[in-house]
Design goal:
By secondary structure, this protein is mainly α. The protein contains 2 helices and no strands.
Amino acid sequence: MQAAPVRATAIPTLTDALRAIESLLMSSGQRTARRNAWTSVLEDRRRAKDRVEAQRVLEKAVAARTS
């Protein structure tokens, strides 16, 4: 008796499913604009995080200098 052959089909992820739905509902220009906007949001968050960290470093430097 032989074992059944194994099929190697990948199960789509939630992201893949959402992208497929997005491609059906939106034109390519809208998809590009949405992705660009999301990239901008992520970059803004990164810059805000960097500003907070820089502020902490400066505050520590001032505190160390005045002590």
